Amino acid sequence: MSRTAMIRARTDSRLKEQVEKIFEKLGLSTTSAINLFYKQVALNEGLPFEVRIPNATTRKAMKDAKAGHSVKRFKDADEMFKSLSD
């Protein structure tokens, strides 16, 4: 009996390219990333993250942040925490 199994799935080619670039930065192959995901699903006995559709306020905040609107940048965590206490 084989100790491995083949997984076949279809996905959008642009999404695949984008995600594989991220995997590469993390030092992961697509196979390693899929195995990592499967192991987390097994450990959590479900998805290892919450699946929700963001509301309008959250979507706007995400869009603004991505565009750099209303975003404060800090050189490090100390600077960020100092600004929060001011």
Topology:
Layout: H1 13-26, H2 30-44, H3 56-67, H4 77-85
Q: SSE order, as H and E?
A: HHHH
| Poorly predicted ranges | none
List how many beta strands DSSP finds. Answer: 0
What's the overall geometry?
Answer: elongated
Task: Count every helix, treating DSSP H or I runs of 4 or more residues as helices.
Answer: 4
What does the main sheet amount to? none
Calculate Rg over CA atoms.
19 Å
Helical content stands at 55-70%
Euclidean distance between termini CA atoms: 64 Å
Structural class: mainly alpha
Name the average pLDDT: 93
Q: Indicate the proportion of strand residues.
A: under 5%
3D structure, described in words:
This protein is mainly α and 86 residues long. It has 4 helices and no strands. The chain is elongated, with a radius of gyration of 19 Å. The mean pLDDT is 93.
Keywords:
86 residues, mainly alpha, 4 helices
Provide a quick synopsis of the model.
By secondary structure, the protein is an all-alpha fold.
